[in-house]
Amino acid sequence: METLSAADQRQLQHKGISQEALQLQLDGFKTGFPFARLVAPASAGNGVESFTAEEMERYRRLYREKSGSEKILKFVPASGAATRMFKSLYAFWQQCRQDRQAAPGADVQAFFDHLPRFAFYADLEQAVLKATGKRLQEAVAQQDYASVLECLLEEKGLGYGHLPKALLLFHRYEDGPVTALEEHLAEAALYAASDGVCRLHFTLSPEHKAAFAQRLGKVLPTYEKRYGVRYIIHTSEQKPNTDTVAVTPDNRIFRDPDGNMVFRPGGHGALIENLNEQEADIIFIKNIDNITVSSLRADTQAYKELLAGVLVERREAVFAILRQIEEIQKQGGAVSEAFLRETEDFARKRLSLRFSESFNRLEPAARLEALQKALDRPMRVCGVVKNTGEPGGGPFWVLPQGEEAPSLQIVESSQVDMGNAEQKRIFETSVFFNPVDLICSPYNHRHDKFNLPQFIDPQTAFISLKSVQGTDIKAMELPGLWNGAMARWITLFVEVPQSVFTPVKTVNDLLRAQHQA
What we know:
The chain has 517 residues and is α/β, with parallel strands linked by helices. The chain contains 15 helices and 20 strands.
């Protein structure tokens, strides 16, 4: 490693990053990270489960019966500003500042054509009137696009380019517009309340916490009265010790003009540390922008309860087996072949676990220990939808580095060697997509909480090329929260309908029917 100055060491200490951790990052830049080794797409009957209406109702009932005695939490990644949501508008705004006669492209034109349909229309009209003295539609008719976009995006107007998605007005109802934050409050009350208490945790950037708290304080009494629950809401920030150092193209530490090392956020995979701090028996994970209007929320509730019911059933079965194994070990470890076969059969059929060819050649005590290790892990049930061409990852059978048997994983396109024709074929023939719809169980059968970072696959980090003020750098992203950060969990995939996947990646997504009340 490069020689670190006293200032460098103070910088590391301030962030909570050890020199050993820094060295591991630098080594990763030099060696790179392997691509995922795809074996096959997860498919119906081969890694993806689906249920009849009768089975679904049974699982929903099981969850509702259990929910009163369990601590339940909804965990919502909501860090960062919504800048990328307005990428095309920012690009056009820059054009307008150089050429007032610039013509908008198709997506930007659609934005202006449908302005009255956005929940923030009234607020934007007030901002434009204050800034220009014109009504909003008058400014658009005069093609004063620059003024409109400045009022939408910049802090002297609505500041939407600087706010988190949680605080943007997403939907409009008869009694007024609501933010994504409020939709999560409403949704959580339907399926994530326990004994009249509804717990949520939002991850936020530090610069947004004050505005978040202000909005929450304003709306919380209304939602508590409407849904008859008491909300307990906490927030956290991505931890500085999960930042990763930037390097030059030749893998030397990149420094700013003052000589300080430059660090970047490690991506959403860093949030495994935040998740690890949560005290809850069942944790729902859902992105901040994946919400819908109230009239279409029934499917969301139904399938969330289905996924949670599957988690409860499989978790309880695993706990019972682990207790049996511990009892066998207490009594000297003599185990019957029937118990081993029955346990392996359960693991294969009910948990989609796979074992190496050498597994059945082990002595009974070693097979019992291997089964115990395979079962004694955090569990997640993930909803997957049919792939309709949305960008992102999906469910696959993957052979992890150093392993002899494949496991179910969520894999992003960036993890796949698209130069390998067979790997590209496997990725492109997947019929399911990952909508980030997860239900997690972070405790073991003794109700001891797992240390979640122990179940990360560090080889699933990846390196990307960036530019800082015109200078090329290399940046590292940690294993993604639902990718490599959960690679060593027990993973189950369940098919859910497209109606529960309603993300807002661009501002024009708010024009879709799922976001129009």
